[in-house]
Protein 1
Amino acid sequence: MSPSEESTAGESEGSVEIPAETPAVTPAAGSAVETPPDGGVTAVDPARGVMTWCRARPMAVLAAVLLMASAVAAGSVYWWLFRPDRLTDANTQQQVVAAAKDGTEALLSYSPENLDQDLANAKSHLTDPFLGYYGDFTDTVVAPATRDKGVKTEANVARAAVSQIRPGRAEVLVFVNQVTTSKDRPTPALATSSVLVTLVSSGGRWLISEFEQI
């Protein structure tokens, strides 16, 4: 090899190629970015990230859904069962029980001597739909039997307790002792019964709207 060729070869082996400088990429202020392994810059998709997280953790998503459903159910139970009771104070409950007791005793107590007055007193404790039924029943059954057979009955409420109460409506469970006499059976006969009395608030009073023996 000639000296000129050796010189040329040496220059080729010792030379280094310098690549052109690549301009840096600067993300815009406030933008969300992620850096991939090759050093480039790629924008982040939040929705895709959430979906990926959900697919990777299905049990966590299910637990969150169940927790939310439980919270909604608990709120509904509180509103429909617990909250109405708290909207009625102790004084209101006492009024309801007293109205149920007075109305029940008036309904089931009458005598031949004061029949019209007794029935009118009973009706003053009632409202529809039970008021209409009671009027028909006393006209066709109670009044004739009382006048013709001398039926006399007196009721006394032994116990009464609120079964359910909401603003404007209440149910009271009443336990009644009733003593009855007549011309044919002058010896007093005692009967006991339990009645579910439904009352509604009307004109500042609690009136009986339903009267169901149980």
Protein 2
Amino acid sequence: MPLLTKALQENGFSKASSGTGYFNPSSVKEGDEVRFTILGDESATGYELWLDGPEGKGLKTRFTDEPSAADMAERATELGGKVRPDTKPKQFLAFAIWNYEVEKVQVFEFSQQSIANPLIAALSDEEVEAEPHLADFKISASGSGLEKRYQVVSLAGRRRKPAIDAPIAEAWDKVVKEGFDISVLVSGGDPFKGSHF
């Protein structure tokens, strides 16, 4: 194997292909595409917002239901922070996914409507809803900063082929046996550590 793969030589290193347990859509650069499939049959949803934490650092916090101003103030006090004057909670959605680029189970959390709406529409289709693992999705981006826009398209799933599905199913079974629980994300936990955070 050469020191640098052809893909690295041609495309450079993409943050979207990082080896972490989380896939962050903001890491998708213009011109990049990341293909994934959803794993399991559970998701996490709620509301998130950023507080000014101790020492002026941003602090992300989540709620199951849309928080009132009093809820946000109470949480900020608990965490030793302050509610930012312009703070508006944003709804988020998270799934366990298989990221084909890094060949790894990851948590895909997002709050952008341009990502959520196409995924919700595709997953609401009767055929996809019955077997969501047979569909893949591809996310790409255009623009940058506040002008960044995401595109999500649904594709026929690669997991229809047993040779591709087998290692994905094996990796998913492994994280599930290790205690993976997407629901703990809402309370600030690490889904890969499950209820043991």
